[in-house]
Specification:
Helix content: 40-55%
Number of helices: 16
Distance between the termini: 81 Å
Bound molecules: adenosine-5'-diphosphate
Low-confidence stretches: 1-9, 401-415, 540-544
Largest sheet: 5 strands, parallel
Strand content: 15-25%
Radius of gyration: 43 Å
Mean pLDDT: 84
Structural class: alpha/beta
Oligomer: single chain
Length: about 550
Amino acid sequence: MDSSIEVGMDIAASEPVNILMVDDQPAKLLSYEAILRDLGENLVKASSGREALEHLLKQDFAMILVDVCMPEQDGFALVELIRQHPRFQKIPVIFISAVHLSDMDRNKGYASGAVDYVSVPVVPVVLRTKVAVFADLYRKTRDLARLNHELESRVLMRTEELHKTQNALLEMDRRKDEFLATLAHELRNPLAPMQNSVELLRRVKAGDSAVEPIVGTLDRQLQQLAHLISDLMDVSRITRNKLELKREPVLLSTIIANATEMARPKLAIYGHEFTVGDLVEDVLVDADPIRLTQVVFNLLSNAIKYTPKPGRIRLEAKVTDDSAEICVADNGTGIDTEDQTRIFEPFYQVDRTLERAQGGLGIGLTLVKTIVEKHGGTIDVQSNGNGTGSTFVIRIPRVQRNEPTATLEGPTANPEAKSLRLLVVDDNQDAAETLTRLLLHLGHEVETCYDGNAACEKAAVYEPDAIFMDIGMPVMNGYDAARQIRSQPGGKDTILIALTGWGQNEDRRKTEAAGFDRHIVKPVTLSQLETILADLNPTAPSAI
Ligand code: ADP
């Protein structure tokens, strides 16, 4: 209990309480007063029931001392009347009676809520003791009520403070999520021109032994950066509940092949022994192929990172009646039991020391768990900790119906290539120029513009087969430019491809509504470009 409450109670404990004495004989009132004076309470006298009621309505009383035999109204009737008032229903009463009280009389008293009796001649010590007990009881009850009230107002105050803190925290959390989303988006924008430049350099300087290792380093670092940024974007999608799956029936073997393919370069760097178990039966799973590949790749990537080299990593897949099971096992550092649930929390890392840092943000497993659960699946981890390795198992529902298969394979090259007339529009000159050079390198005819207005004018005279257009541009944005191009002569037949940093369904809907045929999320890679161009024109040239 804090000191202010204790002080409050001390004062309350020494405060006298009011005692109402009702008797038609003034002499008796005086004698009660003499007997009770030493108690130090406020003694209030009333010589009739009416006077007693008047006092009761004016102030609070701890108890009433009442004579049973009064001429106008007997004590029982008076108490019955008093107790009809809700405020006085529980007020204690001591009846003083000069006559012998029968059991009937007592019952009458109890029925009116009376609590004690004193007979005449009054024995002073008896009366004093009884009154003192009631006065004390009243004081304690009153103190408790005060304390209760004080506590209630403190609880209310604290609850209000808690609400304010909670709201402030929620607001900060919301701003953090927004910041993460903006940060990831802003970080991704410069990636496109950098990746395009590296691709170009690789091709232009192919065979140059001085440049090739530098390009290799740049490429690997950029890939790592792109990977981190895309994880960051995914986490901000998860926290804002905006992660969406594009599910389709997909072969389990395709997922495994793609994830394994993605992990190969990292496996080679670490020099681990890597084995993939034979898949006895291939099945279709109802999954987003890109997301599920990301899940398996993340598990492989962790197994590679958290296994001292040269270690052993094994991927196995099994099929049960209703699900497909993918299991990634390593003989690495292992995970202690208490960390096994925490590793799925955002930003949680078992060992944060810089010496042990493995180049992650602590969000890979959060993504894995969220994506698996969004598929209606489960994830489990088994490990005995300290250096004994870990095994991650995911289960995904399999497709029950007989649906067509989907694979992640790209288009095949077409030797009878035909050059396309292309227009690149981006206010980020680096992005525009590197994309232009890549397209030129692929053997196409390319023009470049740096705003929507110029793009509309150029499109009218150049009549391109396809336009790669950024969305957020000054002067005229990509949506307006697309609409205008569609309304110009020849604009209906041009393939419009939106190149943007935003890839949510809502963003796709907007580009579609503006008249775009395709929506590509930056950074666009060379192989993506080849796929797009091959789709546009089956006789387009493949990569050189
Ligand atoms: P990151 O790898 O970026 O730190 P993750 O979310 O992928 O983030 O993993 C969280 C933590 O779980 C890691 O920091 C690591 O401590 C632990 N972990 C994940 N996979 C393994 C594994 N195969 N072996 C040992 N520890 C692992």
